[in-house]
Amino acid sequence: MNRFVAGMVLLWAVALSAFSQSKAVDIMGRIMEGDTNQPAIAASVQLLNLPDSTQSTGMACSPDGYYRLQAKPGKYVLKVSYLGYITQLIPLQVTSQNKRMPDVVLQPDAILLAEAVVTAQAPQVQVVEDTIQFNSSAYRTQQGAVLEDLVEKLPGAEIDDSGNVKINGKDISKVMVNGQEFFGGDVATALKNLPVEMIDKLKTYDKKSDLARITGIDDGEEETVLDLTVKKEMNTGWFGNVDGAIGTEDRYSARGMVNYFRGPTQVSLIGSVNNVNDQGFRGGGGGPRWNRNNGLTAKKWIGLDFFTKTDKIELGGSARYNYTGNDVGSIGSTEDFLTSGNSFSNSNTNARNRSKNFNADFRMEWRPDTLTNIIFRPNISYAKTDNLSLSESGTFNADPYDLVDNPNDYLNLEKLAMEDDPLEEVRVNAINSGTLTDGKDLSANGTLQINRKLSPDGRNITFRGRFSYGDNVNRQYTESQTNYFLLQSYLGGDSILIRNQYINTPTKDFNYRAQLTYSEPIAKATYLQFSYQFQYMYSESDRKTYDLQSYGNDWNIGAALPADYAAHEVDSLGKYAEYRYYNHDASLALRFIREKWQLSSGISLQPQHTVLSYKRGDYMVDTTRNVFNFAPNIDFRYRFSKVSQLRFTYRGRSSQPSMENLLPIVDNSNPQNIRVGNPGLKPSFSHTLRFFYNDYKVEQQRGIFSHASFQATQNSVSNSRVYNESTGGWTTTPKNINGNWNAFAMFGFNTALKNKKFNIGTFTSFNYQNNVGYLTDTQTRVEQKNTTTNLNINERLRGSYRNDWLEVGLNGSFSYTVERDKLTPSNNQEPYNFSYGGFTNITAPWNMSLSTNITNQARRGYRDSSMNRNELIWNAQLSQTFLNGDATISFEMYDILRRQSNITRSLTSSGRSVYEYNGVNSYCMLRFIYRLNIFGGKRVKREEMPGMGGPGGHGQGRGPRRF
Questions:
Q1: In 10 A of CB 644, how many CB atoms?
Q2: Which of 533, 791, 894, 956 could form a disulfide with 585 if both were Cys (CB 3.0 to 4.6 A apart)?
Q3: How far is the C-alpha of 189 from the C-alpha of 172, rounded, in Å?
């Protein structure tokens, strides 16, 4: 019997061994650049059979430098090759267990790099799978230029008036430096402070969340990032600069930056002050933009950022303090669409805004062993605001511009009482008000993620927990007088409403959530992924309103509150709301990974339970709501080659209306904007589809990138607005509506011509919006659906010639818009904007450079004739570099012809608006820059650093800022 058992055990062992020998296992690792300590993006990794060296399998590395190959047990050679680096051949014995390879660190090929410097111009754009890479040296910027100036020149890049960045139609949510978050990824901080001369390459790609990166489970938190690679010579020591400028119109700016980059360690200290409407520091370069300056802004900023790592742990974080002072004056006009005669309003506003905030964040990623990964991210912030706003506004039942040239001159109530009113026939109301607001906001949060690999074939389990806390206090003081010209008082005159109020709104909230995810391999390169998350959220808000009208002239804005103000609380204008949310989220996904394609498909099921305690005046309610949301998703990628890829994604999301919108109550705390709840609101569901395709031809330096998206929302929540002809106010009720959708498509093409000195590029985009809203006839009170459509077509062209001392270029853009209003076709218009111009950068042999650009920006087709105008924008700079390239002095001139305006306009399904802001666009500045560069323990002259300085240096910045 014992022999039989022993024989069966031996037979089973032999069978298991044979099965193990025939099963493919994973070989995983990472490829790094030895001189920069950065991932070797798209490095070629091949597994060669022995003894004939035929290829068994292979792939290109991911943007993070990782690779994963599959092979059966045996003897192989791992071949790693990467342009500009020495190829490595590594003998490899594959057993029946998955194998984690140590990082392969590639060393530069000095001979190949030297030949490349002599024979090649840097291509402007390169595409590798889903990563688009721009070479900084292919775009000249002026001395002292910062990242914003370089980004403005990139094909497909857009920066709006608020500093938000889009590249190829996708919003940039974080900025990285050498693959690590810079000041928490804050985009504005990087744009305004990082000097161009330190940047070698810019890469944009979709970065997965910590959870998705570690586990492969798509949690929908993917974000598009801009990753900057620092020049190799700057990764070996200290470098920095000091920059100061004074100018006309009382303009000034100063900035200092010190960096220590050595191997895996990065430390940056930045400080700046300025009043040139920048978040941090002002440089030059870029393309023309409308509406740059909305108000006058002064900024003070200081921050420290660091990152370091060892084989097992990565540490990083930042701390920053920011002060902003903003003085804004605006003149506006609005037209609200109605079915029986539109409503018109005009306003003058002057605002003084002050804010201080402090933020600190930290990140730790620890790998105590090869199977465990721990990530911890805490964050804390504190903000204090102090804002004052004075406004004059008026509403009219006919277009006031038909009676006077400037209706905004007739909005002050004191003047109206003393002068004849030319707008008396069309006037509905006039409002003069002042509002002072101060607030304090403290918030803290932390995230902990622990991942454990349970087997070498992809089985793993992850826990992620998050906690956040917020404490906010907002105090608002208001003085306002509203004259109603169509309502009579009991004395027979115009009805007048005076509001002197103090509103105090403290808010507290906290939430925590715990998530458990599990991944199970069910077949070769096929994984079943499960995730469950529980979240609890608590929010409490207690708004109290006090009527101070009885104090008369004894109280006004800015004065201390009366001692007995608490006795004048108006209970009907207060509000107490306490929310408790209990959310569950269970998701299931199937993921396939193949050599040429990847597919991930899943669905998330989200039951929710909400409890609301609400009190407003005499109305009190405790109510609960139980809902069920679901969110399907698909992500498919097909790789034609390492530089060409097609990607398709679909994501569906359901969302619920807020509990307060569901309550059948009337909120009349603002008589001009009364809100009414709607208990019949339904959940909305949005569909989002996206397509991406890119390709790159290395020899021709020719890049193609395209993107298309479509988004539609079922049962979207829209506001039904009823206009009160007597008061000029609105009563708003949220209602569901169908028909809101938009489509977007873009195509970018960039290529060098035969001798690589000429370059041409084009960027085309198409955007169509279908907006549906409700309009109510002011006479019949019949509600109708109104559809407005907005078609926008944009084209940007750029061509340039460049040699060692000269760069000359032409650029142009055209934007055509078709605006249609179904119920009020008289509002239709077809405006278009176009611009054309040129630029030149000349580098003299004695280290002097001259840069200038001129662009004519034109608007046409607007119903408001004042919008149809030309703006010829001319900027120039003359700079001289001395002290062996360490110092530069420059004279800069902006908007020399004083033609740039500060006008914004918008169109929705309910109306259109135009606003003009104060701002300083035309001024001159004298700037001095001093650079400190110490590499490898010694000071290095600027002309000795590749790509920096001297005729022909590709990194030499030339070209003034273009607006």
A1: 17
A2: 533
A3: 13
Q: In whole angstroms, give the CA distance from residue 662 to residue 656.
A: 10
Name every residue whose Cβ is closer than 8 Å to that of residue 33 and which is 6 or more positions away in sequence: 39, 40, 82, 85, 105, 106, 108
Residue 104 tokens read as 């392969």
CA distance 252 to 324: 15
Average pLDDT rounded to a whole number, residues 924-935:
83
Residue 893 contacts by C-beta under 8 Å, 6 or more apart in sequence? 875, 876, 877, 924, 960
Q: Which residue shows structure tokens 């194998």?
A: 99
**Residue 236 CA, distance from chain mean position:** 31
642 strand-pairing partners: none
| R_g (Cα) of the chain, nearest Å | 32
- Cα distances (Å, whole numbers) of residue 770 to 681, 765, 775, 904: 22, 17, 16, 21
The predicted structure's pLDDT at residue 942 = 38
Short-list 348, 345, 349, CA closest to 401: 345
Position of tokens 């998206």? Answer: 709
Distance CA 657, CA 865 (A): 41
As a whole number of angstroms, the distance between CA 955 and CA 942 comes to 11
Least Cα distance to 281 among 377, 164, 147 occurs for: 147
675/20: higher pLDDT: 675
pLDDT category of residue 284 using cuts at 50, 70 and 90 = very low
Distances (CA, A) of 503 to 349, 566, 617: 21, 11, 15
Measured distance CA(635)–CA(646) in Å, rounded:
11
**pLDDT band for position 73 (cuts 50, 70, 90):** confident
Sign of dihedral through CA atoms 195, 198, 202, 206? negative
Q: Record the tokens describing residue 227, joined without a space.
A: 């990753």
- Distance (Å, rounded) from C-alpha 571 to C-alpha 575? 8
Structure token digits, residue 776 = 């109510």
Closest CA to 262 of 939, 936, 943, 962: 936
- Collapsing DSSP to helix, strand or coil, 517 comes out as strand
Cis peptide before 63 (omega within 30 of 0): no
What is the C-alpha to C-alpha distance for residues 128 and 169, in angstroms, rounded to an integer? 18
Q: Which of 57-61, 558-562, 850-854 has the lowest mean pLDDT?
A: 57-61
Structure tokens, 53: 């060296």
In angstroms, the CA 947 to CA 928 distance is: 21
Sign of CA dihedral 955, 957, 962, 963: positive
Which residue has 């292979």 as its token pair? 58
Higher pLDDT, 691 or 121: 691
Check: CB of residue 539 under 8 Å from CB of residue 559. no
pTM: 0.76
462 with 450: CB under 8 angstroms?
A: yes
Q: With the C-alpha atoms ordered 215, 218, 223, 225, is the resulting torsion angle positive or negative? A: positive
Cα 731 to the chain's mean position, in Å?
A: 34
Residue 311 Cα to chain centre, angstroms:
32
Give tens-digit pLDDT for 765-804: 899 999 888 877 666 677 888 888 888 898 888 888 888 7
Indicate the SS3 state at residue 778.
Answer: coil
Is the Cβ–Cβ distance between 943 and 956 less than 8 Å?
no
- What is the C-alpha separation between 958 and 196, in angstroms, rounded? 11
191-213: b or e for each residue (b if 16 or more CB lie within 10 Å)?
bbbbbbbbbbbbbbbebbbbbbb
Length of the chain: 963
| Alpha carbons 898 and 86: distance in angstroms, whole number | 55
Rounded Cα distance between 338 and 911, Å, is 9
DSSP state of 64: T
Higher pLDDT pick, 45 / 696: 45
At 219, is the secondary structure helix, strand, or coil?
coil
> 355 - beta bridge partners?
324, 385
How far out from the chain centre does Cα 728 lie? Answer: 37
Question: What's the token pair of residue 870?
Answer: 């030309």
Q: What is the pLDDT of residue 47?
A: 86
